[in-house]
Amino acid sequence: MREIAEALALSHQRVHQIVDAVRRAGPSCSFCGKGKDDVTWLVTGPNVFICDGCAARASGGATGECSFCGKTTAVFAGPEARICDSCAVIAREVSAAASPR
After folding, report:
1. Where are the domains of the chain?
2. Of residues 37 and 61, which shows the higher confidence score?
3. Which of 14, 31, 71, 98 could be 78's S-S partner, Cβ–Cβ 3.0 to 4.6 Å?
4. Which UniProt keywords apply (predicted)?
């Protein structure tokens, strides 16, 4: 972290404060940025998350690599992640199973 602090012209302590603040914030949707307290649920992928709202809207468009399964196919893209139709279906199924009946 000292190298990061030096590269950014920040103190080592300030870099630690920034990292700690991000860790405390918890996960957020990689597509819309909403935090876990602002959505019904978040489905976790490898270093990515998708909320119920984005999973409901997800529909493939451009071709790219899915951030959840790694396949190159039509994907719904957000600023930080992409999700293919198959993974979006699974996310919606998780939502349906987790919803109170």
Report:
1. 27-98
2. 37
3. 31
4. Chaperone, Metal-binding, Zinc
Cβ distance 41 to 95 under 8 Å?
Answer: yes
Which two tokens mark 49?
């998350």
Average pLDDT of the segment spanning 31-56: 89
Burial of 54 (0-12, 13-18, 19+ CB in 10 A): buried
pLDDT score, position 24: 58
For residue 90, is it left (φ>0), alpha (ψ between -120 and 50) or beta? Answer: alpha
Q: Has 87 been labeled as part of a binding site?
A: no
Ligand-binding site membership of 84 (annotated): no
pLDDT one-digit tens code per residue, 63-100: 899 999 999 988 888 888 999 989 988 888 887 776 66
